[in-house]
Amino acid sequence: MGSTMKEMNGGGSVLDLEDKCGVGGGVEDMYGEDRACEDQPITPWTVSVASGYTLLRDPRHNKGLAFTGKERDAHYLTGLLPPSVLSQELQEKKLMNILRQYTVPLQKYIAMMDLQERNERLFYKLLIDNVEELLPVVYTPTVGEACQKYGSIFGRPQGLYISLKEKGKILEVLKNWPEKSIQVIVVTDGERILGLGDLGCQGMGIPVGKLSLYTALGGVRPSACLPITIDVGTNNKKLLEDEFYIGLKQKRATGQEYSELLEEFMSAVKQNYGENVLIQFEDFANHNAFDLLAKYRTTHLVFNDDIQGTASVVLAGLVSALKVLGGTLADHTFLFLGAGEAGTGIAELIALEISKKTNAPVEETRKKIWLVDSKGLIVSSRKDSLQHFKVPWAHEHEPVKELLDAIKAIKPTVLIGTSGVGKTFTKEVVETMASLNKKPLILALSNPTTQSECTAEEAYTWSEGRAIFASGSPFDPVEYNGNLFVPGQANNAYIFPGFGLGLIISGTVRVHDDLLLAASETLAAQVTDENYAKGLIYPPFTNIRKISAHIAASVAAKAYELGLASRLPRPKDLVKYAESCMYTPVYRNYR
């Protein structure tokens, strides 16, 4: 049978095949988006072949002044454009010059969103080639301000809005979206946007931004991405009183009404897009986030970036930092400020990794991890009043009210902030960590920058340059005592784009915790000695697409190993296959 297959494929094994026909993730590449068809001429289809004014108004096919003379004649563009022909590289240079003249980050965000709606490939070319400069523009921290003002800057619809008014007809609403081959959905209900709270319908900026990163960093096709906001109202008084608010002007639905709407949504998504569509829950409030993940993880391909993505990227930073700190994860003691989605998600993944490496039960490995919430250290005497997701972290200890006292009592080697409250890692806190540890590991993960538990400068200065520091939002390099420290960014964007690509190319049907561990270990392995010398525990973002391809390959390999992958046969070289399936923003030649 093997030799017959080789004959059919011109002497090559089916396992060696690349994605030459553009069927990444088992879905036909209709628009010529993947790397595999980069050199092939394509036809600019919309409903019919796009031409003339229609072609210039279609962001997927528009190339602006890059249309050649031959293309302008063939597609009725002559006279609709100035006579000059500019290369994509020259267009990119021109736009970057314009963007750099803006002094207000929100102006840059609006300019990038306008470009995305005008010329999709050029938008992604800018983002991919200038990722470290533009990532803070299209995502955190700027996206937080964009969501706060989303009603004012709203232009063309960039995703689907499903509100309580659509109850009973959500499947019909999904069918209104023009693309039918969806592989990734990012959905929010806007109740807990970053550290900014309830922004209701204006939370749409988050799914839009996340999916831009799925494409730019992970190579998932833009046509396969669908941002969705579920509008069940808002408890934000300011928005309810705003005459220009774009969402439902009512208090948030809760309980059965909320559950029924989500149940209908999840069923409709599976019915419309199939078993393998990835649904990423984003910025749901704690009480809903845990319940939704627990409810649907056995029936749908679901992923919560706030719980699982954050956990995976932080675990990668911890595994990476071991090369500087020495020892194993089991040798360290962890203290968290914040016991919500992020805090408990990270804590659980650390416990699972220690359990996997030491063969100790996870109930035992959890005892190395302590959490502080708004009422103090989580201890067993508080069990009766704790939310269910905090209970596993209630260890035997006398009650401790303040973070500083908890540090003195627990003597952690690693301090992790996921509280969403800025300036909580005070001078005394950092100095105490530095007095207890030669190299204290301090992670201030809350977003945006204003909510960060401390700044990079504070961490390095108060620890006398001894801290290993990383944050959720970006900070500039810090000079202290003649040494330049480059703070790492524990950004979920390291993990979720490659993780999603891995699920897609393998046809994975369910997310298993071992897939997250595989992603973490792969990311940690990408850090070089040169990075460590600068104080970094994460690799630079400039290599993010290469990193994403390796993460995708590791996730896919683990999915095949666990029997969760449905895309058969398994490609022989998963890294090469992942790279061939990745979207590239290079302009295509039109027939």
From TrEMBL:
Cofactor note as given: Divalent metal cations. Prefers magnesium or manganese.
The keyword Transport is annotated on this UniProt entry: no
Pfam families linked: malic, Malic_M
Domain Malic enzyme N-terminal residues, every copy: 116-297
Positions bound to (S)-malate: R192, N447, N491
Taxonomy, superkingdom: Eukaryota
Binding site for a divalent metal cation: E282, D283, D306
Alphabetical list of SUPFAM superfamilies matching this protein: Aminoacid dehydrogenase-like, N-terminal domain, NAD(P)-binding Rossmann-fold domains
Domain Malic enzyme NAD-binding: 307-560
GO molecular function: malate dehydrogenase (decarboxylating) (NADP+) activity; metal ion binding; NAD binding
Keywords of this entry: Metal-binding, NAD, NADP, Oxidoreductase
Protein's recorded name: Malic enzyme
Organism expressing this protein natively: Buddleja alternifolia
